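Suppose you are handed only these lines of text.
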Amino acid sequence: MHRRSFLWTLASAAAFPGLRASTAWRAGLASIDITPPLGLWMGGFAARTEPARGIALPLHAKALALEDAAGRRAVVVTLDLLGLTDRVAERIAAAVGRRYGVPREGLLLCSSHTHSGPVIDDQLAVAYDLSPSQWEDIRASTRRIEGQVLDVVGRALDALAPAHLRRSQGEAGFGANRRVAFEPPGPVDPAVPVLAVERPGGRLAGLLFGYACHNTTLVASFVQYHGDYAGVAQAELERRHPGAIAMFVQGCGADANPKPRGTRELAEQHGRTLADAVERALGGGSDVRGPLRRAFGTVTLPYAQAPGAEDWRRKLEDANVYVRRHAKLMLDDIARDGRTRAAEAVPLHVLALGQSLFIGIGGEVVADYALALKRKYGDATWVAGYVDAVFGYLPSLRVLREGGYEGADAMLYFGRPGPFSEAVEDTVMAGLDGLVARAGALKGRLP
Ligand SMILES: [Zn+2]
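From them, the structure of the protein bound to zinc ion can be written out as follows.
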């Protein structure tokens, strides 16, 4: 190095300590047990015939708070839940903003999509045949969980302390594309992204890790609370790293199922497979430097032209109970608003930790999105689905045109009028491009 520039470097480091500190992070982690009371209806399967009878693996809400050298903060919350509704996500975000000053773009609420947790709010109401008092219990449980999420965010912020972040990536292979009726078979995203949080001195304080596959090893006949494979992987990693908090982020796993599935032993097997993949990834990876950049927005996705009141009234006589319940909901919408729901507001997040890009998308997101975003922004891009609100499935144009459960049919259970219009994929991708630009997330990134 030239002597003069060496001196200048020393002088500037002394005069502007922020320059030296610009790679410094503070991080805080917290975990809270959110297992609800027994007797509550469990979310995710229309075929269930009884409420929760036991606790096979406790459910948790966990939070990772990050703060860069400039004091910008973001909090990633992970939940052993099927998903939140937009109403619940917005209530939590507003309370987090009021109480802790974390802005909307700094809060990501990531659900693992376990089907062995409680029903949340009125999500998938068409799928369940419950009494008013059972719905009252679900509302009370949802409110209780909202309070617990608020607590865990506060505790993670209180725990902010100097930290070193490392990003690595592995792979796992138990997720299989489940749209077997369609040819050619659709893709899966095998990536296991990992963010390790270490304290100065090297102690592992926490792990954020992901995988893209329905968290449905356990099936409708299983009526005990359980975080499924994702819950097992978190518990296993916390057992192997005492004192560390392990947090699972669901990817774009809407069209993938664990293979094989159906028993608690298989959930444990897949969980250990995922934990092993995380362990292998932990050995490598690269340091994550600041700054933290954040952007949040919603895109409006129009629904395709829905049937009119006359058609819905005819469906009230249908042989299928779900079709009848759905038709009743649609007629309620028409009576109240003059029409069924015209569009969906889909939440989108961009979080950049230096050059490490994290994208969060609401809804049950199919693998095509993750793969397209990785082609665009690089293989190491972390793409999470099920973030904030889970309103139904988010199909790619390919899946929408193919139809089937993820393209069209599942919308009935979510109380939506039907499939999205063909603008769906372009609108989401354009929305994310806008957020990446707004966050300045590609600044300084190598092409
Ligand atoms: Zn699902």
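What can we learn from it? The chain has twelve helices and 19 strands. Residues 23-290+355-408 form one domain.
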